[in-house]
Recover the amino acids of this structure.
């Protein structure tokens, strides 16, 4: 499998997917990504074409111009569009709260607010094209159903390969190795750990989109685990996750786009500038760092 080119405009930018198409259908981590992570959350409502993504892009561009750190969350179904923008220094989030990743305010007016972009529709102009809109929408649904079928078949093949590899993986040896890695790289912070869950790969109409620059340009130390089947790497990565949280670190957990409920691909520890990453057929790191080979 080949990854499509990352859409980051500058190498220092950070981008993640908050949701992705997967073997199980659309898989969203919206709640983990955004709920309770900001002092201000703007939930943008409105149908397609109302300017939600364009609005968020302008906010992100303006924030970067004044030197604010900006995290962009592209849409896996259309990587040119944005699902969300996070301004961590201002503890502010703007997000698309419409289907399929519907999110509604829990604390309206207190720290969460709805922006209604539906008011910008010109209903009369749209009504003129009613027949065409209905036909295109119907065709789109049929194509989406077909694509979902292919993705289910592909995901099943990956899952079968994973289970076959797991059956011949020395789990105790992998756990012992993971324990040594953790003790070597992860100090005890003696506080409560925190976790964000996201993707840096997404299955899109353009193929697999990868934002590995988010890792390579922002983390100085990489621990690379080469494992095309994900059996040993998943054991090691999950041990790292558990250990880092137990030792009081804030981590970013990055799930496998095909099997997010089964496999965790990467763990990032921002305060240590440390990343434990899985290298496979669709994610390769051009780094001189020593590789741990699953074989």
């Amino acid at each position: 499998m080949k990854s499509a080119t990352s859409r980051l405009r500058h190498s220092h930018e950070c981008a993640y997917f908050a949701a992705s198409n997967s073997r199980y259908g659309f898989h969203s981590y919206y709640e983990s990504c955004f709920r309770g992570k900001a002092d201000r959350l703007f939930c943008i409502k409105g149908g397609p074409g109302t300017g939600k993504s364009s609005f968020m892009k302008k906010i992100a561009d303006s924030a970067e111009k004044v030197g604010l750190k900006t995290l962009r969350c592209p849409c896996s179904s259309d990587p040119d569009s944005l699902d969300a923008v996070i301004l961590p220094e201002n503890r502010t989030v703007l997000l698309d709260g419409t289907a399929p990743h519907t999110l509604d305010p829990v604390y309206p007016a207190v720290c969460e607010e709805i922006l209604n972009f539906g008011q910008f529709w010109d209903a009369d102009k749209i009504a003129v094209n009613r027949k065409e809109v209905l036909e295109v929408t119907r065709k789109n649904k049929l194509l989406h159903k077909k694509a979902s079928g292919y993705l289910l078949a592909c995901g099943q093949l990956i899952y079968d390969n994973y289970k076959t590899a797991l059956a011949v993986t020395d789990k105790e040896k992998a756990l012992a190795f993971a324990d040594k890695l953790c003790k070597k790289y992860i100090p005890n912070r003696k506080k409560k750990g925190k976790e964000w869950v996201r993707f840096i790969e997404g299955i899109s109409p353009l193929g697999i989109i990868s934002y590995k620059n988010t890792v390579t340009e922002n983390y100085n130390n990489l621990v690379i685990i080469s494992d095309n089947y994900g059996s040993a790497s998943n054991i090691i990565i999950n041990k790292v996750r558990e250990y880092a949280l137990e030792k009081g670190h804030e981590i970013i957990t990055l799930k496998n786009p095909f099997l997010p409920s089964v496999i965790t691909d990467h763990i990032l520890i921002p305060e240590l500038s440390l990343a434990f990453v899985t290298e496979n057929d669709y994610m390769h790191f051009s780094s001189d760092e020593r590789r741990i080979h699953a074989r």
Observations:
- Confidence is low (pLDDT under 50) at residues 5-12.
